[in-house]
Specification:
Layout: H1 5-15, H2 23-47, E1 53-54, H3 56-65, E2 76-80, H4 81-94, E3 99-102, E4 116-120, E5 124-127, E6 140-148, H5 153-177, H6 181-186, H7 191-206, H8 212-223, E7 232-234, E8 243-244, H9 245-248, E9 252-256, E10 259-263, H10 267-275, E11 293-297
Parallel strand pairs: 2-6
Antiparallel strand pairs: 1-2, 3-4, 4-6, 5-11, 6-7, 7-8, 9-10
Length: 301
Amino acid sequence: MMLNAKELINRIQQEYNILHPIGEDNSHKLKSILVSMLADFDSVAKKHEIDYILAYGSVLGAIRHKGFIPWDDDLDIYLSRDDWNKLKSIFSSEMEDKYILEGPGYNDKLLRQTFGKIYLKGTELVEFMDMNSPYTHSIYIDIFVLDNVSANPVVRIFDSYFARVMKFVINSQTYYKYPNPILNKIKKTSFSTKIYFNFRATLGFLTSFASHTAWCNWFDEFFSRHHSKTGFLTQSSWSKEIFESSVYFPPSKGVFEGLEVNLPRNPDLYLKKSYGDDYMQLPPKEKRENHLIVSLNFGKY
């Protein structure tokens, strides 16, 4: 029987002892560093009139907890395509002394994902799925670019499904190119699990005629091709995010761990569609997701 994500996590924790609980002190420190990173980014954004807004669980945390979701330890940001391009143009002069910017179309660095990341230099954060990979392993903030969607509903549906296929292919390359030693053991625990991971690795091999970075760039170019403003925006990998642009922009103000930040213009509608009408209710413990961190080092921070 195929392992689901939670079963996989539990088995790894029980049998291989490589996933170490962050602990309350380290969790507090990590969140403090992330807020400091957000404050730095906010300062640069204000200077250059970049209208970022918090995204995903960061919006939920700001509304429900005035900060981080207690069991969460990451930060997510949305940028419009124009502001993403602006960030790329000013990053080296404004932030490169302390941070690394990674993202499609920025430079020739090895890309891990189809979206952007800002890494804090001199730190280390290795997540389980990135073990044995050459990607940057540092404390980070995720940046997701909001693009126009097609006015044609059929094209929207196609784009939504094609995004899933493309991301499946792109992530399969990581399975092939950088085999995870723990997953290699896990996949031997059942026939279906072995078939699944072998299929992912085979798909990664068949698509390795182009580099992982090239695939990420192609993904970004394809989903940013709708230049006409239709009044709707989305982040291409999650179809639930198709909202009228007025739901996102202009930003509203909120508080995140004592820092005044930008939120979607209509956070209530955004959160209801993303998390359900009962988003203010805490989920049961078994549905509270944590990142699988293998190692964490704060460096001088």
